[in-house]
Amino acid sequence: MTFRVTILGSSSASPTPKRNPSAHALNVHEQFFLVDCGEGTQKQLRSAGINPLKLNAVFITHLHGDHVFGLFGLISTMGLMGRRTPLKVYAPRPFDEILANHLHYFDAALPYQVQWHEVRTREHELLYENKVLEVWSVPLRHKIPAAGFLFREKTPPLNLLKEAIGRYGLNVAQCVAAKRGEDIPLGDGTTIPNQQLTYTPYEGRSYAYLSDTLYSAKAARLVTGVDLLYHEATFAEQDKTMARETGHSTASQAAKAALAAGARRLLIGHFSSRYKDASGLVEEARELFAETEAVVEGRSYDIPVKKTQPE
């Protein structure tokens, strides 16, 4: 029941000798997703031991180069690796035009489909769903249209209370119905409420990616209760004027967002190249939100299972 985020890039517009442009890889139950794809992402995937062919979908926040330039090389490489499964790419317009030009000039004979899905950056809407996961868009405040993403694990199937099976003499059909969430009628005319027969084995987990953006109370509200929040912290508070002018946040504003969202943990990144060491940004954020860390490229951050106790 893995729920793990691996940091592939943490720099802002310019890469540095120690930081690559933005990219995160998410593993949910051994299903892999890529969030943003700056230059060098395919090399970073390999360094992290993540096979690009396992990617289910790619989510692009906005069409600034430091968040998307790496995707075109990755698309080509996956073709060379023999990918046959379609790749879903979620990105704002006009990514469809950019993709069409790339395919025309560089990958006309690609052996798989790249399926573009529009991200409407002013909408909070369900973009992707499977048996274990939902992905929602989160409107952001940047210089161009941008959206963050909320990855939310679905509530797992109900488990049966073993003692209830014997106590009520449940047969196979009744057990199956109970696991579907139904109340169970017995032969004596009584009905047993489902909550007396089942329990949820663990709570669904969540991860939100909010970059690039000014502080947004709306975005914080839309990710309320998130377990792990990644929020850009491009600048220190002393450079807040520059942050505002460029459509970015300070470390203090990232912490403010985590506090407003009721997040359990905060990861900050997308650091300006002017800061050689992120420790000052972490200290600044921790003044408001103690559970703050600066991301480290190549490191993975697990969200542990929160088991519930049967009543």
UniProtKB/TrEMBL annotation:
InterPro entries reported in the protein's UniProt record: Metallo-B-lactamas, RibonucZ/Hydroxyglut_hydro, RNase_Z/BN
Record-listed E.C. numbers: 3.1.26.11
CDD domains: RNaseZ_ZiPD-like_MBL-fold
Cofactor: Zn(2+)
Keyword Isomerase: no
A Pfam family annotated for this UniProt entry: Lactamase_B_2
Ranges for domain Metallo-beta-lactamase: 202-271
Enzyme class label: hydrolase
Compositionally biased intervals (Polar residues): 8-19
Residues given in the record as Zn(2+) 2 binding sites: D66, H67, D212, H270
Gene3D superfamilies: Ribonuclease Z/Hydroxyacylglutathione hydrolase-like (3.60.15.10)
Family of the protein in this entry: Belongs to the RNase Z family.
Known partners and oligomeric status: Homodimer.
Xref: HAMAP family: RNase_Z_BN
NCBIfam families reported for this sequence: PRK00055.1-3 (NF000801), RNase_Z (TIGR02651)
Protein name listed in UniProt: Ribonuclease Z
Lineage of producing organism: Bacteria, Pseudomonadati, Bacteroidota, Bacteroidia, Bacteroidales
Primary gene name: rnz
